[in-house]
Structures are given as structure tokens and as C-alpha cells.
Specification:
It is built from 3 helices and no strands. By secondary structure, it is mainly alpha-helical. It is flat, with a radius of gyration of 25 Å. The mean pLDDT is 78.
Length: 91
């Protein structure tokens, strides 16, 4: 049943979390520091910047002209009961 946690099991859980999580944070911070050194040292260098900007603009237009009108029509014309069923199915 639901017994209160003992101090020993609580501390054991915290130690386990620390052992599993801290190396991940350490690796992420080390990687961020390396990236910052590269950016500061060389300046920003994105060889695919023009491609990225083109894809971003395409996505913006797709969102404005296709996805937003479809979502608005869905919310306007589909009854809440059916939207709830779709939501339940997808979640």
C-alpha cells in the first residue's frame, strides 16, 4: 500500500538521480562551451544559411496560407464532440 518513504530510500533515490543526471548536464555544458569558443573565435559560419532561410520562408508561407486556414476551418466547422474524439485517439 502507500507507505511513507523512509529517509534512506529517499536519499538513495536522490543519489541515483544524481549519478544518472549529472553526467548528462556536464557533457551538455562542455559541448556548449566548445561551441561558444568556435563561434567567438571564427564568427558565425553556416555554409547552408541560404538553404535554411529558404526553407524557413517556405514554412512561413505554408503555415500562413495552408495550415492556419485548415486549422481555423477545423475548429469552426467540426463539432467539439468529434474534435474530442480525434484528440483522444491521437493522445
Amino acid at each position: 500500500m502507500n507507505e511513507p518513504l523512509s529517509l534512506r530510500s529517499l536519499l538513495g533515490g536522490l543519489v541515483l538521480i544524481g549519478v544518472l543526471v549529472l553526467p548528462v548536464f556536464h557533457a551538455a555544458s562542455a559541448q556548449e562551451a566548445a561551441v561558444e569558443e568556435e563561434v567567438v573565435g571564427e564568427g558565425t559560419n553556416d555554409p547552408l544559411e541560404s538553404v535554411n532561410r529558404g526553407i524557413f520562408e517556405f514554412n512561413r508561407h505554408l503555415d500562413s496560407f495552408v495550415l492556419k486556414p485548415v486549422a481555423t476551418a477545423y475548429n469552426t466547422w467540426i463539432p467539439g464532440f468529434f474534435r474530442e474524439r480525434v484528440h483522444s485517439m491521437l493522445v
